[in-house]
Design a protein that fits this description.
single chain, alpha+beta, 4-stranded antiparallel sheet, Glycoprotein, Type 4 Pilin
Length: about 150
Amino acid sequence: MTLNKKGFTLIELMVVIVIIGVLASLAIPRFSQVSARSKAAEGPRLLSMFESAQLTALADNGTLLTTKALLGAAIGGFDAKSEWWTSGEFTGNASAITFSLNSKGIGGGVADGAILDIMVTSDGVVTYPTKTACASTHKLEALIKAHCAKVR
């Protein structure tokens, strides 16, 4: 009498579950790190848009865009809305404009309140004053080096 049983043993099922658990424990932290990197990279992109709009206005009109409304009109309603970066300040006059961003909820160890800023003068000189994010040594905040590398 031969019994022809089909199926998996409990040991085989446990081994598969352990393998899936190990793979998940490796993948989930990597995913959150990649997510934090992309959120952090949005800040320098917004600063770059601001810089381009100001330099274009300077080339076209000979003046800087001195209000958020003018800036928004110049680049399709740009108002620095982001889930992870809030517009901290937009200050200045016809001779120099400063624009700042504050981080919030980026995760991955990036502290809320990290600041990135840029200043454009009526001479077309662009400077990146040193602020919190650039002074940090945390590896994810260092990913903002597209901006921080320009800091003098």
